[in-house]
Write a structure and sequence with these properties.
Radius of gyration: 19 Å
Largest sheet: 6 strands, antiparallel
Number of domains: 2
Oligomer: single chain
Strand content: 35-45%
Number of strands: 10
Distance between the termini: 28 Å
Helix content: 25-40%
Shape: elongated
Number of helices: 4
Length: about 190
């Protein structure tokens, strides 16, 4: 219902007249910023911010150990059929353990089935490793599965030091992000 009201407000704002292009753009910017603010809750680790330069909403989860983010783009806002789509679902983290020299994969155990996702980005620094997960068949399947409400998921990293558990808090927030991504029109492929 909120999405419908948001789109209706955008259509209304776009009908203010041909001479008022700047006012229309300003109204759209204000509505996008209000929509981002509405999606951000003060007690939540998930925030939304309107990126005026990229003309999209940036949705981000800042967890205890891992972060997840994606972008929502809007098409045809000034037409009778506006739509939106989400893309670029990314999981990232930085490990500050000098004993961890290599991260082999992130393993998801969802309702008893294991999926292993290799990092798509690894940057090593003096005493830390920055990781990004954003692609791969197993990654997409795991994120697709956790984007459904009634699943049980455990997630950990397989490293040279052994298994490093992802905190339950981050797992539940990651699940909320995956659900939100799917509801915003994102696909896992």
């Amino acid at each position: 219902m909120k999405k419908f009201a948001f789109i209706a407000a955008l259509i209304f704002a776009s009908c203010t007249g041909g001479n008022d292009t700047q006012k229309t753009e300003q109204a759209i910017d204000e509505l996008m910023e209000a929509y981002a603010k509405e999606r951000t809750k003060p007690y939540d680790d998930i925030t939304a911010e309107y990126d005026k330069k990229e003309d999209c909403l940036s949705i981000e989860m800042d967890g205890k150990m891992l972060n997840a983010c994606y972008e929502v783009y809007y098409k045809d806002l000034l037409t009778d059929n506006p739509s939106s789509y989400a893309k670029s679902f990314l999981i990232s983290m930085v490990l500050f353990d000098p004993e961890v020299k290599m991260v082999y994969n992130m393993e998801f155990k969802i309702d008893g089935i294991s999926f292993k996702a290799s990092p798509s980005m690894v940057n090593k620094y003096n005493n830390s490793i920055a990781l990004g997960f954003s692609s791969g068949e197993s990654y997409y399947k795991a994120i697709e599965l956790i984007s459904h409400i009634n699943v049980n998921a455990d997630i950990w990293l397989n490293t040279n030091k052994g298994k490093i558990e992802i905190p339950y808090h981050d797992v539940t927030n990651l699940q909320a992000m995956a659900i939100s991504y799917r509801m915003d029109g994102g696909t896992f492929e």
